[in-house]
């Protein structure tokens, strides 16, 4: 835990009292004593420092000071064909740690309908994993999550509103261009990366997505699992943007 992440309603008059796993981490891992300064941040808010004012076996009280400016929101969004639930479980924290602003989980043709009945897409499950990723990466921006169980209605009716100012990249083994071959178009404020299921996008889905302005992006001849492809592509995109 590289950042003690606080919810806005936990901070009153620049003070907070923690009694949960964060307090345990401060006591057991950081071995903090009164006067110790710790990195803190507010979910979707500023970064700052919290000085330990009181610590005991039950709770930890911090006096906080925060930066005036907010950290930049990640400029990469993700349109992801719903992976197997056990794969998605591994990915939630990575989405936040690597820096994704918005995640749209979409049902593609080669995605089992039952995946959308899984508890891993319930906010009570995934929010804690997203927070874990933010604390690892020292970031405060909680990714927005949107569930879309029908491909065609979403792409036809709502996709344009969600990603109107985006540069659009479509990951597929048929893509001949690598990320280094692209230049972000003028006027694009953000990037949306579309990653298909392990069985691949169907020809119909590729046609629809390309009709919405997506450019094909390849990573070579190797066929990758969803979690490997997502982590690799997000890392490449952020490195390229820098």
From TrEMBL:
Belongs to the RNA methyltransferase RsmE family. One of its GO terms (molecular function) is methyltransferase activity. Keywords: Cytoplasm, Methyltransferase, rRNA processing, S-adenosyl-L-methionine, Transferase. It comes from Pontiella agarivorans. Coiled coil: none annotated. Residues 74-237 form the Ribosomal RNA small subunit methyltransferase E methyltransferase domain. InterPro entries: Alpha/beta_knot_MTases, RsmE, RsmE_MTase_dom, tRNA_m1G_MTases_N. It catalyses: uridine(1498) in 16S rRNA + S-adenosyl-L-methionine = N(3)-methyluridine(1498) in 16S rRNA + S-adenosyl-L-homocysteine + H(+). It comes from the Bacteria. Its main location: cytoplasm. Its EC number is 2.1.1.193. One of its GO terms (biological process) is methylation. Specifically methylates the N3 position of the uracil ring of uridine 1498 (m3U1498) in 16S rRNA. Acts on the fully assembled 30S ribosomal subunit. It is found in: Cytoplasm. This is Ribosomal RNA small subunit methyltransferase E.
């Amino acid at each position: 835990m590289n950042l003690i992440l606080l919810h806005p309603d936990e901070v009153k008059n620049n003070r907070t009292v923690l009694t949960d796993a964060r307090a345990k981490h401060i006591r057991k891992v950081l071995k903090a004593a009164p006067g110790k300064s710790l990195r803190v941040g507010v979910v979707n808010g500023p970064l700052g420092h919290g000085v330990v004012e009181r610590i005991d076996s039950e709770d930890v009280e911090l006096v906080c000071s925060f930066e005036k400016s907010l950290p930049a929101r990640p400029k990469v969004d993700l349109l992801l064909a719903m992976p197997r639930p056990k794969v998605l479980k591994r990915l939630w924290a990575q989405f936040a740690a690597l820096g994704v602003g918005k995640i749209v989980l979409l049902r593609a043709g080669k995605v089992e309908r039952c995946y959308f009945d899984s508890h891993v897409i319930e906010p009570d499950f995934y929010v804690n994993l997203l927070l874990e990723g933010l604390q690892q990466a020292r970031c405060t921006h909680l990714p927005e999550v949107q569930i879309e169980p029908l491909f065609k209605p979403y792409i036809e009716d709502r996709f344009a509103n969600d990603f109107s100012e985006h540069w659009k990249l479509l990951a597929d083994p048929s893509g001949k261009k690598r990320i280094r071959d692209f230049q972000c178009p003028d006027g694009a404020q953000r990037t949306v990366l579309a990653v298909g299921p392990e069985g691949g996008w169907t020809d119909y889905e590729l046609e629809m997505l390309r009709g919405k302005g997506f450019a094909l992006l390849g990573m070579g001849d190797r066929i990758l699992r969803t979690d490997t492809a997502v982590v690799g592509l997000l890392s490449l995109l952020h490195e390229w943007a820098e």
